[in-house]
Amino acid sequence: MSRIDEGLSELLSAFEKAPYPADFLSKYSQLELLSHSHGTETFLVSAKADGMLYVAKCYDKSVFTVVHENDILMRLDHDGLPKYVDSFEDDRLCITVRSYVEGTPLDLYAQQGEFTAAKAVDICVGSAISSVIFIRRRRPSFTVTSSRKTSS
C-alpha cells in the first residue's frame, strides 16, 4: 500500500470515528469549520442527496444543557435570518442544520457597479436593522440582548 493510500485510509477512518451522530453524517458531508468556541462548533456542510450547502451548529451537551435554537428558528421567517432545516441529537451533541446564503464581499460588489458610502451602510446595517425589527415585532417577543458589560 502506498503512502498516499495509507494516508487516505487513515483520513477516512478518522471521519468514520467522528463524534457526530451517525444519522447526521449519513445525510451531510462536513466541508469547512466556520467557527469553534467553548462548547460549540459551526461547520459548512453539504447535503449528500443534492449537494446543497447548509450550516450545522453543534452544541456540546456537557456545556449547554438546553438548546433553544431549533424552536426559535422554526418560528422565524425572514430573508435576513437563517431558516431551520434539520436537527440531530445524541447523548453528547445537539446539532442544528440551518440555511446558508453565501454573501458577496464588499470589494467584489464595488467592482460590479456603482458603489457609494450610503450603499455600503445600507448593505451592512440595513439588513441587520430589518432583522432586529422583525424579531422585536414577534409575539411572543424575543429578547434581543447585548454582550456589553454594565461598565461599558
Q: Which terms summarize this structure?
A:
five-stranded antiparallel β-sheet, single chain, 152 residues, disordered C terminus, alpha+beta
Shape: globular
**Structure classification:** alpha+beta
Q: Which ranges are low-confidence, i.e. pLDDT below 50, for 5 or more consecutive residues?
A: 144-152
What's the arrangement of strands in the largest beta sheet? 1-2-3-5-4
Give the N-to-C terminal Cα separation: 61 Å
- The portion of residues assigned to helices is 25-40%
Structure, explained:
The protein has five helices and five strands, in the order ααβββαββαα. It has 152 residues and is an alpha+beta fold. It has a five-stranded antiparallel beta sheet. The termini are far apart. Residues 144-152 have low confidence and may be disordered.
